[in-house]
Amino acid sequence: MASGGLQLLGFVMAFLGWVGIIISTAMPQWKMASYAGDNIVTAQALYEGLWMSCAMQSTGQIQCKVYDSLLKLESSLQATRALMVASILLGLVGVFVAVTGMKCMKCMEDDQVKKMRMAVFGGVIFIISGLAALVATSWYGNRVARAFYDPFTPVNTRFEFGSALFIGWAAASLAILGGSFLCCSCPRRETSYPPTRGYPKNASSTGKDYV
Question: Would you say the pTM of this structure is higher than 0.70?
């Protein structure tokens, strides 16, 4: 029962992490314009994401523009896109594999060993998915930080971490932790020995033989 609860907890955490990775990928707030230092606060806030750039006016109206050409984007941005999409696809595969190996599901009930292996395999896929998202978000965040502290970067073009980065880091951590719980939910095999059979007791000899 304890392993079943750990398995369910791991799946829920990994699934929530996968959903968070999808949300982070779709959000345009991967980096936001910085107003620190001598920057003049304007009437709009600028955001940039993996797929579009947005500007929010003081009235609350948001205008977004999708990037025109894929080939004109920086190679690092294209790599970040690829890692996040790969993370989402791996997470989708992990959901189906892990569900198959869940103890509460009816499929593969006749072979519990294969069922447990499916759950562990799903956990491994979730861990890889979380690592891909963690690498992508950390790489993007490192680029933002380096550009912010670069003295040659114009003050009015400096950006800070956006909310999508923090969601991505949290989601990747959930996916990795949930996948680890799925891998650890498999109970250890115990060596089983065949039950010892008792020998029949000899009938008590009466000492008298009858012919």
Answer: yes
- Residue 50's SS3 state is coil
Nearest Cα to Cα of residue 155 among 31, 58, 40, 32: 40
- Taken in order of first residue, the domains within the chain and their CATH numbers are 4-27+70-184 (1.20.140.150)
One DSSP character per residue, 11-41 reads HHHHHHHHHHHHHHHH-STTEEE---TTPPP
Cα–Cα distance for residue pair 148/179, rounded to 1 Å: 34
Cα–Cα separations (whole angstroms), residue 44 to 57, 61, 209: 4, 10, 114
Q: Are 47 and 32 in contact (CB under 8 A)?
A: yes
- Give me the sign of the Cα torsion angle 126, 132, 135, 138: negative
Cβ 132 vs Cβ 92: under 8 Å:
no
Whether the Cβ atoms of residue 202 and residue 146 lie closer than 8 Å to each other:
no
The tens digit of pLDDT for each residue in 18-72 reads: 999 999 999 999 998 876 555 445 547 888 899 998 888 777 788 888 988 777 7
